[in-house]
Write a structure and sequence with these properties.
By secondary structure, this protein is an alpha/beta fold. It has eight helices and 20 strands. The protein has an eight-stranded parallel β-barrel with strand order 1-2-3-6-7-8-9-10, surrounded by five helices. A four-stranded antiparallel sheet has the order 11-12-13-20, covered by helices on one side. A hairpin with a 4-residue loop joins strand 11 and strand 12. Helix 6 packs across helix 7. The longest helix has 16 residues. It binds ligand QV4. The site of ligand QV4 has 17 residues, from loops.
C-alpha cells in the first residue's frame, strides 16, 4: 500500500495542519489544484477531547469515531473530499489507531458532544470498555518492545489491536473514510502498535471508492509514523513493507546540511546512500508538526532563508514521497491554531500576493515553495545528472534535460558558467520570480547551445537557491 494515487504528473503532498474542511475545499479549487499539488494531509477527523485553551494536540486524544471536530462535521468533510478529488487533489487522513484519550477528571465531553470516562477506559461512543485496552503502564524504556507497544504513550489509553472487537471498530472507521473518497492514511504512533496487527487491519480495508475517480482495485495509501533514529529496538524496517514510513533521518540531516553543519557537497549521495529507506518506502519532509516545535537541527518557518533552500532541495532531489508542511504561527508547544473568542478555528486570510496574514503561515503559498512543487512536476521521471560542487557549500545539478538547480550556502558569491543540461534558450529562475506574460519577474538565465548558462547567486541575495525548468522557458 505504497501507491499514493496521484493524479497526472503531480508529486507533492501538503499538510494543512489544523485547517477547517471548508477552507481546504476552497484551497484545493483556488490554489492547490492550479499549482499542481498532489494531495493534502488533513488533521485528525474523528471526535476528540476538549482541552483547556484548545491546544492543537487535543486532536490526538480520541473520544469516538464520529466525524466532528473543530475542522468541521461529516458533511463538510465529505464535501471537501469530493471537491478536492474533482480538481485532482487527494486527501490523506491522520488516523489514531493506537489509543484513545488520556486521563480527564470526571466525565469528558468530546467535540461531537459524546461523553466518555477516560479514567475508567469507558468510551460509550464507540463503544470501548476497559477490556479493549492494554493494562495501564508507563513507557520508561524506549528500547523495551513491550513497553513501547503495550504501555501508554504519554498516558493515552492504549488500545489492544489484537482484539477482534478493536480491529473491527478501527476497520469500520477507516472504511467509512474510504467510502467518503479519501486516498489513504497517515497512521499516528504506528511504532506503538505491533506490525502484525497493523498488517491485519490494512489488508482488511476496502478498495478506494471508484465513484471518486480511483481505478478499480486501488488500495489505500498508508504512511506510518515511526520515529527511528537508527538505534531503536522497534525499527522502521518492521513497517516498511506494509506501507511507507516517515523518514525522520531525512528531516534531521537536511536540517543539519542547510544550517551549515554539514557541507552541501555531501548531498551528492543523498537518499539510501545516507542510510535512508528505499525511495518508494519513504515519506519525506523538512519538518513535521511535532519536530518543528522541538529545538535541534530541524528547520522550520522561523529560519525562512535556510528553510526555503532545504525545501528546494527536498523537492528537487528525486527521493521519497514528498510532504510539505503548512503551519500556523506558534510560540511554544501548546499554542492553539488561530481561533476566535469563542475558540472556533478561523479561516486563513490572504494579502494581495496570496500570502497568509492572520496567524496562518502557509509555507505552501510561499512562491519559492509552490514554484518547487511545479518544478517537481515538470521534471518528473528524470534522473539526477551533471552534479557540480565547489568542494564546499555551492552545488548544482540537473534533472535530465528538464530542470536545473543551484545552491549557494557559502558566505561568498557563486558566479560562473555551469552546465544546466537544458535546451538552448532563456529561462526564468522560479525562485526569485515567475514567468509572466512571456517575461521573467526575477532573475533569468540564458542557456547556450552546449547547455551552459551564467549562474549568479550572491551571498546576500534574498534566496540562496536558483531553479530553472522547461515549463518556465521564455
Ligand atoms: C501528560 C504527561 C505524561 C503523563 C500524562 C498522563 O506529560 O507524562 O503520562 O500526562 O497523566 C498531551 C500533553 C502531555 C500529556 C498528554 C496526555 O502534551 O503532556 O501527558 O497530552 O494528557 C501529541 C502531542 C503531545 C500530546 C498528545 C496527546 O505531541 O504533547 O500530549 O498529542 O494530546 C513519540 C511517539 C510518536 C509521537 C511523538 C510525539 O513515538 O508517535 O512521541 N507522535 C505522534 C503525533 C503527536 C501526538 C501523538 C503521537 C499522540 O505526531 O503529535 O502527540 O497521538 O516519539
Amino acid at each position: 500500500q505504497h501507491n499514493p494515487h496521484w493524479w497526472g504528473n503531480r508529486n507533492t503532498i501538503v499538510h494543512l495542519f489544523e485547517w477547517k474542511w471548508s477552507d481546504i475545499a476552497q484551497e484545493c479549487e483556488s490554489f492547490l489544484g492550479p499549482r499542481g499539488f498532489a494531495g493534502v494531509q488533513v488533521s485528525p477527523v474523528n471526535e476528540n477531547i476538549i482541552a483547556a485553551g484548545r491546544p492543537w494536540w487535543e486532536r490526538y486524544q480520541p473520544i469516538s469515531y464520529k466525524l466532528t471536530t473543530r475542522s468541521g462535521n461529516e458533511e463538510e468533510f465529505g464535501d471537501m473530499v469530493r471537491r478536492c478529488n474533482d480538481v485532482g487533489v487527494r486527501i490523506y487522513v491522520d488516523v489514531l489507531l493506537n489509543h484513545m484519550s488520556g486521563d480527564f477528571d470526571g466525565v469528558a465531553v468530546g467535540t461531537a458532544g459524546t461523553e466518555a470516562e477516560p479514567r475508567k477506559k469507558s468510551f460509550p461512543g464507540v463503544p470501548y470498555t476497559a477490556q479493549d485496552f492494554h493494562p495501564t503502564c508507563e513507557i520508561t524504556d524506549w528500547n523495551d518492545r513491550f513497553q513501547v507497544q503495550q504501555c501508554e504513550l504519554v498516558g493515552l489509553k492504549d488500545l489492544d489491536q489484537s482484539s477482534d472487537w478493536v480491529r473491527s471498530k478501527l476497520i469500520e472507521f477507516l472504511d467509512h473514510l474510504i467510502e467518503l473518497g479519501v486516498a489513504g492514511f497517515r497512521v499516528d504512533a504506528a511504532k506503538h502498535m505491533a506490525s502484525e496487527d497493523l498488517e491485519y487491519i490494512y489488508s482488511s480495508l476496502s478498495n478506494l471508492n471508484i465513484d471518486h475517480g480511483f481505478p478499480h482495485n486501488s488500495r489505500p495509501f498508508i504512511f506510518q509514523e515511526v520515529i527511528d533514529h537508527g538505534h531503536e529496538t522497534v525499527s522502521r524496517d518492521e513497517y516498511k513493507d506494509l506501507g511507507a514510513v516517515t523518514e525522520f533521518r531525512f528531516s534531521e540531516e537536511i536540517g543539519n546540511a542547510f544550517r551549515g553543519n554539514n557541507a552541501l557537497k555531501w548531498l551528492q549521495s543523498w537518499g539510501t546512500g545516507w542510510g535512508f529507506l528505499p525511495s518508494g518506502q519513504a515519506l519525506t519532509f523538512v519538518d513535521n508538526h511535532d519536530n518543528q516545535r522541538d529545538a535541534g537541527a530541524v528547520l522550520n518557518y522561523k529560519s525562512p532563508r535556510q528553510y526555503k533552500m532545504a525545501t528546494a532541495f527536498h523537492l528537487a532531489y528525486p527521493y521519497g514521497v514528498s510532504r510539505v508542511m503548512s503551519s500556523f504561527a506558534f510560540d511554544d508547544h501548546d499554542t492553539p491554531p488561530p481561533q476566535d473568542a469563542q475558540e472556533r478555528i478561523i479561516s486563513p486570510e490572504f494579502d494581495e500576493d496570496g500570502a497568509c496574514v492572520n496567524g496562518w503561515i502557509c509555507e505552501h503559498r510561499w512562491r519559492q515553495i509552490y514554484a518547487m512543487v511545479g518544478f517537481k512536476n515538470a521534471v518528473r521521471d528524470t534522473e539526477i545528472t551533471g552534479w557540480w560542487d565547489n568542494g564546499d557549500n555551492q552545488i548544482s545539478f540537473c534533472r535530465g534535460n528538464k530542470g536545473f538547480l543551484a545552491f549557494n550556502n557559502n558566505l561568498y558569491d557563486l558566479s560562473q558558467d555551469l552546465n544546466t543540461c537544458l535546451p538552448a534558450g532563456t529561462y526564468c529562475d522560479v525562485i526569485s520570480g515567475s514567468l509572466i506574460d512571456g517575461s521573467c519577474t526575477g532573475k533569468s538565465v540564458t542557456v547556450n547551445e552546449n547547455g551552459y548558462g551564467y549562474i549568479h547567486i550572491g551571498s546576500d541575495d534574498f534566496d540562496g537557491v536558483l531553479a530553472l525548468h522547461v515549463d518556465a522557458k521564455v
